[in-house]
Amino acid sequence: MKQVVLTGIKPTGTPHLGNYFGVIRDAIKMSENEEFDNYYFIADYHALNSLKTKEDMKFYFKELACTWLACGLDPKKVVFYRQSRIAEDQELCWILMNVTPKGLMDRAHAYKACVDANKAMGKDEDDGVNMGLYNYPILMAADILLFNSKFVPVGQDQKQHVEMARDIAKYFNKKYGYTLVVPQEKIKESVATIEGLDGRKMSKSYGNQIPLFCEESKLKKLIMSIKTDSTLPTEPKSTDCTVFKFFKLFASEEKLAEMEKKFAEGISWADAKKELFETANQFLKPMRDKYNYYMENFDEVIKMLEEGEKVAKKVAKETILRVRKVIGVED
Ligand code: ADP
Ligand code: TRP
Q1: Ligand 1 atom, smallest distance to 195 CA
Q2: Atom nearest to 196 CA in ligand 1
Q3: Which of 70, 95, 157, 322 has the fewest Cβ atoms within 10 Å of its own Cβ atom?
């Protein structure tokens, strides 16, 4: 039996460089390794909580599906599917709720952040908190456990959720005997948290992101807007800055060494940013072209998802049957 690698992204906004370098790139690399079975999905039910309209759901789903393919997901190697098409996920979620202590959910970062913000503003603790937010980690545990996942590639901010999935699997196995594979997160330390334009974590929530496939002119504009210090053009510059950190993501070793030298000798921020733009654009262009193709030929993408969903359904059914038997609702 091969080990299963599974990850999902929720369609809540236009995919950005943080998503790519933080999780997508390594997930794609893992799918090229014959040792693994890979399941990559669009977590549309996880997005429900933050989306305001059905148009947003449709649009961000489309962008995210095209992004996975543009970044190199090969549907022959990866089971590629929509979370909402696998009803067994919801069934498992309910079952898992019954072994999940409420206290575990009380400690979840996303929920706690909401409560803390409410408290700070003198509001009721649970103001604006719905059960989708509260139970988010249990659905995520179901996503993971349904496919017998061993490794879950994610960015640093999802570590706690995967740990919770691991705890929930253990609670279940303790009560019913070993049934569910106990998963572990896979976080690449060097890119665990990609910085945004302002030096904080790149995130849709901070509005400091560089969209992965924005047009060339927008990419240039965003790169030129990166915050820098006030060192003069001829003065040496520290490589501990956003411009250099971005450069590191896109450049080859040689190019990086050249840039390091220029930083030590003194290069103007404008020139450094121009070089960063050229390098980033060269890196992103082939993927951007593919992305635009899929956006225009989306029916092809839907067909690929439907094929993946057939395979995902089959595996999901096997797990659910096994689970139903151990809990005593099926012989
Ligand atoms: P956002 O913070 O923009 O809402 P998501 O929560 O949708 O992003 O993240 C999707 C995936 O991308 C997750 O696995 C997450 O850990 C990863 N990710 C998001 N932002 C970053 C970042 N700045 N650095 C590294 N990984 C990230
Ligand atoms: N919570 C993840 C995020 O915000 C998305 C997600 C949902 C996920 N289910 C998952 C990630 C299962 C890994 C495995 O990015």
Answers
A1: 23
A2: 23
A3: 322
